[in-house]
Design goal:
This protein has about 280 residues and is mostly helical. The chain is built from 10 helices and no strands.
C-alpha cells in the first residue's frame, strides 16, 4: 500500500505542475490556487506514504534511489509551499512544481520494494544526516528557481521593452531577497548535514572523512555556497552574479546527489549501500 501511496503522489504533482504552468501562461489566479491545492494534497499523501513505509520497513526509508528521489520531491514541494505562504509568490510554482514532478516520476519507475537494511546504514545518524541534507537541498531548489526568474526578468528590464514575462515575474529585488534568504537557510542545513555525515562515517567505517567521491563533491558544493554567502556578506554580491551562482550551486547539488551515486563508485553509491 505504501508503494502505491508514494507513487500516486506523482499524479498530484503532475497536475499541480500543469496548473502552475497554465497560470504563468494565462495569469488566471484559479490556476495557481488549484495548483497549490493539488500540491498540498500530494505532499500530505506523500508524507502519509513515507510514514507507512517507515513502519513497514522498520527504519527511515531514505536508503536507496527510489526512497531518496521520492523524499527529495516531497521536501521540494513542502519547502515551496512554505515559501509561497511567506512571499505569496505563486509564479514560483511554475518553476518548482515541474522539478518536484521530475524527481517523483523517476522514483515511480524504480523498484519500490522494501530492502534489507545494510549494516552500515543501521544508525540513528542516518535519518539526521540525510534529512538535513535533503531539506537544505530543497531550499537551494527555491534559490535555483528564483535565480532563473531573476535572469529572465533582468533580460526583460535591459531590453526596455517590457513584455509578457515582465508582467508575470516579481521584481528583481524580491527575487534577490528570496535568493539570499534561501542561502542563509540552506547553507547551515548543508553544513550540519556534512558534519553529521562525518560522525556517521566514523561510526560506520571508522573514519570521519575518507575522500569518497560523494564526500568530495559534497565539499565542493559546500565551498561553492560558502563562497556565494561570503561574497554576499563581504563584497556585496547581488543580482545577476548571485543568481548565476545559485543556479550553478544547485547543479552541483544534483550532481552530488545523482551523478556521483550513479557514475562514481564509492561508499555512498546505492549499489554498495544496499548490498
Amino acid at each position: 500500500m505504501h508503494i502505491s501511496l508514494l507513487k500516486v503522489t506523482t499524479l498530484f504533482y503532475l497536475v499541480g505542475a500543469l496548473l502552475y504552468l497554465y497560470f504563468i501562461i494565462t495569469l488566471h489566479e484559479r490556476g495557481a490556487r488549484l495548483g497549490r491545492m493539488f500540491l498540498l494534497i500530494g505532499v500530505i499523501l506523500h508524507a502519509a506514504g513515507f510514514v507507512a513505509r517507515y513502519f513497514a520497513a522498520g527504519y527511515t526509508p531514505i536508503t536507496n534511489l527510489f526512497e531518496s528521489l521520492s523524499f527529495f520531491a516531497m521536501a521540494i514541494v513542502g519547502v515551496f509551499l512554505l515559501t509561497e505562504l511567506r512571499y505569496n509568490l505563486r509564479i514560483l510554482g511554475s518553476f518548482i512544481a515541474p522539478l518536484a514532478f521530475v524527481f517523483s516520476i523517476f522514483a515511480a519507475f524504480l523498484p519500490g520494494e522494501v530492502a534489507r537494511l545494510a549494516p552500515a546504514l543501521n544508525s540513528y545518524w542516518l535519518p539526521v544526516h540525510v534529512i538535513l541534507l535533503f531539506i537544505g537541498d530543497a531550499v537551494f531548489a527555491i534559490a535555483f528557481g528564483a535565480g532563473i526568474m531573476y535572469l529572465l526578468q533582468e533580460k526583460e528590464v535591459k531590453r526596455k521593452r517590457l513584455g509578457a514575462i515582465f508582467k508575470r515575474l516579481p521584481s528583481l529585488e524580491v527575487l534577490d531577497e528570496i535568493n539570499y534568504k534561501s542561502l542563509t537557510i540552506g547553507f547551515p542545513l548543508l553544513t550540519l548535514g556534512i558534519i553529521t555525515g562525518s560522525i556517521w562515517a566514523e561510526y560506520a567505517w571508522g573514519s570521519y572523512w575518507s575522500w569518497d567521491p560523494k564526500e568530495t563533491w559534497s565539499l565542493i558544493t559546500w565551498l561553492l555556497y560558502a563562497a556565494l554567502l561570503h561574497g554576499r556578506l563581504t563584497v556585496g554580491w547581488r543580482g545577476r552574479k548571485a543568481a548565476i551562482l545559485a543556479i550553478l550551486g544547485f547543479c552541483a547539488v544534483l550532481f552530488t546527489f545523482l551523478g556521483v551515486n550513479l557514475l562514481l563508485p564509492g561508499l555512498h553509491t546505492y549499489s554498495s549501500l544496499s548490498g
